[in-house]
Amino acid sequence: MDVFEVLRGQRDAENAFHMAKYMRNQFEFLGIQAKPRRLLTKPFFQDERQRLKAGGQLDWAFVEACWQAPEREFQNVATDYLARFKVCLLPEDLKHLEQLVVTKSWWDSVDALVKTIGYLVHQFPTLKQEMLRWSLSGNLWLRRAAIIHQLGMKTATDQSLLSQCICNNFGSQEFFINKAIGWALRDYAKADADWVILFMEQHQERFAALSWREANKHLNS
């Protein structure tokens, strides 16, 4: 199945206009929403699952081709692919994920990659040092990914790593960084609200107003 041919054959100009506008006209779109896109690519993923079960390796050439395609839907396909087959990831694949984070970067692609990144780091704890490196990067999207890569891990969250990634980004004026700090804490509060409350009390003077507000949403509910 040629994913590129199939999706391009379903182009919807009106939807594409509105989708591009929502993303501040930073990317081209085919105009295919997530649900129909996943239905259209389902046969490809089924075939790929069988190939991988038979001993194949992740097709990074396919992922890179998706990332190079001008239409944003193909980056969505790539993040779906990596999320679905994340169990096949190896430590050396983090360098590929890093390149994706810093290329054609926006919140949609980065946020779609973070749970895949988090899974890989959780499986191979030596990669935690890479998350600390990312948290100090000059690239804001790597810093955002480092802060939120443990989303959804609940009691498996590494508190020290979460704390360090956040503390490394206090003082930032970047909206996407300060939003990420609040999001990470709000998410972890579902598992350990006491830890989050104590962390916020200890660092209250360092919080941006946005981070504080976002972190408190769950605590105040």
UniProtKB/TrEMBL annotation:
Gene3D superfamilies: ARM repeat domains (1.25.40.290), Hypothetical protein (EF3068) (1.20.1660.10). PANTHER family: ARMADILLO-TYPE FOLD, DNA ALKYLATION REPAIR PROTEIN. This is DNA alkylation repair protein. It comes from Fundicoccus ignavus.
